[in-house]
Amino acid sequence: MKRIDNLLNSIGIRDQLTIIKIKYGLEIIRSELSKILFLLIIFVFLNKSIEYVFALSILSPIRCFSGGLHLKTNIGCFLFSLLIYTLIIIALPNIPLPIYIYYLLLIISFLIILVLSPVYTKKRPIQTKERYLFLKRRTVLISIVCFLIIVSISIIGYIEVFIIGCWVMVVQASQLIIAKKINWKEALT
């Protein structure tokens, strides 16, 4: 961390609050990249790396702006992420459902994400109306793009990948519902 302090000082950043924010951002990036790498290694061993990369590429941009459930420790976050991706990639796709049910789940989940987003947390409160609107617009835009990608995949015939995309949306919508309930309960206490 001393090297980061020296680097920031050398480029003229001396404000302590700015330095703290930059260090926090770098720590989050390091933590997320290591989590993504460890999960990739696990899914490579499970012969599901392509499915993992697809699920990650849909879930990450939506979750970045819409929010969701957050755990307090890095290991808790890693284990929860492993559970989520295992559900999305391995467990849930093994539930035999008619294709029209997947489309229905996709549409309902898409609408839930649009309505409930963004979800705040104690650690990352949304402090201004402008920030809320920014996150809302980004969530809507990214969700529409992801929705269209998932539907396009089904149209060209990659049904297994389409099903994973549907479960990504269902799991994210479920996280938002749970996170909203937690926030509502915390507001009452």
TrEMBL record:
It comes from the Bacteria. The keyword Oxidoreductase does not apply. Keywords: Cell membrane, Hydrolase, Membrane, Protease, Quorum sensing, Transmembrane, Transmembrane helix. The chain crosses the membrane at residues 36-59, 71-93, 99-120, 140-170. InterPro entries: AgrB. The keyword Nucleotidyltransferase does not apply. SMART domains: AgrB. This is Accessory gene regulator B family protein. It comes from Anaerovorax odorimutans.
